[in-house]
Design brief:
five-stranded parallel beta sheet, alpha/beta, 42% helix, 26% strand, globular, 118 residues
């Protein structure tokens, strides 16, 4: 499998409920199947996250790490951050204040948005 160098960025809006979590799961699995195992979820426009979805994200994180990749969160509101904290996800999923910071955590030399997925 050829691995992509730049992380993929998935922009999520609204609530991450069961239906949205399934959509995110399919998108991440499709990316991984094509060698893209480093993923950033831009959740700037997310209002709420279900506890089920947090568990699903941890499961996806484990799958990506098994493929030598990673899943990171960017731009979470204070409310959404508290949901991740209460769900116990903080030790597992890295969260960054901006997409740029999340990208930089993969590779400081990355300079483009060609990996962005909507």
């Amino acid at each position: 499998m050829i691995k992509a160098v730049s992380p993929a960025i998935i922009n999520v809006t609204g609530d991450i409920d069961l239906a949205e979590m399934i959509r995110i799961k399919h998108k991440i699995i499709d990316l991984a199947d094509h060698g893209q195992v480093n993923v950033i979820l831009n959740i700037k426009s997310v209002d709420a996250v279900s506890f089920f979805a947090v568990g699903g994200l941890i499961g996806l994180l484990q799958k990506l790490r098994n493929l030598e990749g990673d899943l990171k969160i960017a731009c979470a509101s204070d409310f959404v951050t508290r949901i991740f904290q209460r769900a116990g996800a903080e030790p597992w999923i890295e969260s960054y204040a901006s997409v740029e910071d999340a990208v930089g955590s993969f590779d400081d030399d990355w300079a483009g948005a060609e990996g962005t997925v909507h």
